[in-house]
Design goal:
Shape: elongated
Largest sheet: 6 strands, mixed
Low-confidence stretches: 17-26
Distance between the termini: 57 Å
CATH topology: Double Stranded RNA Binding Domain
Number of domains: 1
Number of helices: 3
Radius of gyration: 20 Å
Oligomer: single chain
Helix content: 25-40%
CATH class: Alpha Beta
């Protein structure tokens, strides 16, 4: 059994510390909030609204988020429709480029209650879920991307609220 010298021990400690710091920075945090007065039990249809995402880094991001979300929402008994929906979903995101690597920093899904026909009601934000952190490291438009899939699953894991 050998004893690690002072320099080797310091190098080992620094390596472990940096590894924990780097891995901690890669974690995705999910936050959500909702209007507690709203009952989602009678609202089972939804449609997507075009987002303002004009991300030239990843033109398929919005499409793939919708595909992943549609699968999860269908498992929860929601139906996507093209008109007269109970709910409307929009997506937004923030990204940056670091050393040539594209990174999605936030992904947000907003869910709105749609007004009833022939009323003066406005659409109303009733639920929001956001994933914070590095969602995927390099350009990856694959809908099966592990990080993207986990982010969408995490966001919708608390929808609808119970």
């Amino acid at each position: 059994m050998s004893i690690v010298g002072g320099k080797e021990r310091l190098a080992l400690i620094v390596t472990i510390f940096l590894s924990v710091l780097i891995m901690g920075g890669c974690a995705t945090t999910i936050k959500y909030s909702y209007d507690m007065k709203i009952s989602f039990s009678e609202r089972k249809s939804y449609m997507w609204t075009p987002s303002s995402v004009q991300d030239k880094q990843d033109p398929l991001l919005e499409t793939n988020v919708q595909v992943l979300a549609d699968q999860l929402l269908a498992q929860k008994g929601f139906t996507r429709v093209s008109e007269n929906a109970d709910l409307m979903i929009s997506m937004s995101c923030e990204s940056d480029t670091y050393k040539g690597s594209y990174q999605l920093r936030t992904l947000t899904l907003n869910i709105y209650k749609m007004p009833k026909e022939n009323t003066t009601e406005q659409k109303e934000l009733v639920w929001r879920g956001t994933a914070f952190g590095t969602i995927f490291g390099n350009i990856n438009t694959d809908a099966a991307s592990g990080d993207l899939k986990k982010a969408v699953q995490g966001i919708l894991s608390k929808f609808p609220p119970k």
